[in-house]
Amino acid sequence: MRRSLLKVFLLGITLLMIPLIVYADIIDSNSCESELDWAFSEQGVLTIAETGAMNDYKSTSGHRPLWQQYASDLTNYSTYQEIPAQEHVPSETIEEIIKVPTCTETGRTDDVIYCSVCGAEISRIPRVIDALGHEEVIDDAIAPTCTKTGLTEGKRCSRCKEILTAQTVVERLAHTPGNPVCENNIPATCNTSGRYDEVIYCTVCGYEMNRKQIITAPAHTYSNPIYIWSGDNLVCTATKICIVCSASDSQINIVSDHVDFRVDQSPTSQDTGTALCHAVFNDDSLSAYKNITIPALNNMAVLNLPSGLEIIGEEAFAGIVSEAVIIPDNCREIGPNAFADCANLRYVYIPKSVIRIADNAFDGCAKVILDIEQE
Hints:
By secondary structure, this protein is mainly β. Among the domains are: 10-73, no CATH class; 94-129, no CATH class; 136-170, no CATH class; 181-216, no CATH class; 226-294, no CATH class. It contains one helix and 27 strands. It has one helix at 18-25; strands at residues 26-32, 36-41, 46-49, 94-99, 107-114, 121-129, 136-139, 150-151, 154-157, 163-165, 169-170, 181-186, 194-201, 208-216, 226-229, 236-240, 252-255, 258-265, 273-280, 287-294, 302-304, 311-312, 324-326, 333-334, 347-350, 356-357, 369-372. A four-stranded parallel β-sheet has the order 21-23-25-27, with no helix packed on it.
């Protein structure tokens, strides 16, 4: 049978699958005229490609195609008519990520359109994605101590972990010395040495910064001093006795450097007065006080100086035997050695009118009490 349009497929094999059939089980293949290609498989399938005219594929007369030698093995055939290809049907644009951007490098996405019928790629438009940039995270600074180093503030990227600002080590702080403390104390006795450790610790961390042993010499342990005044109250002696051994050779006696007198109540003709004695020692830890009585003026040999006397000159009354002197109210000055070497002189009243007293005015008057009137 002749066919005007010859496109025969046996057993439903499509034209586009010819290469697969050829490689799978083809017995023979060739070209027929200029527009036809054919192939014959072991299964008795004749496959013809392209367009063109041909004789009945089973004809045995006239012009015989080359496949006619297999005509007796053909079982079925089919024909088709070529239909022109249709236009692609574009789908919605799809964003395809080609390269993911990083903190420092750009990325890329493509806007792609595929055919919704056959899936063919119709178009592709590349698009650059900007680098993301670093996401800074602060690494807090760590303050140093006297036992540990510290760190400066740092920065890093939380996304890519890159160190943006490296933390640097801050050296340890110096220890802070406290006051020395006494440890392992073995007290000295009257006859043996003692010792103790003087230790300095850091007030922050407690680290022992320094330790040294102190040796203490044998020493007596004294009681509080006992003060003994002389009969004229011009000398005071401080006596200390060891409370541990009470040895006689441990006793020490310290004599006052001098005694100051302060009149608290001036005597009158009939009434006694009072004064406070203050014994002054070279050792500042020692000090003694005593209240004494000043005899009434009627009970002493009194020198009453005349009221018109304004200046008592140099050595004016040196060596007198009087026990008391009353200086008049209008006197203004007492000169050098004015009352020097008056061994019996015990009391001198000086009015506030006196504005100058020579330093040595009463030299040699060991027991005199000066009653200076206050403003």
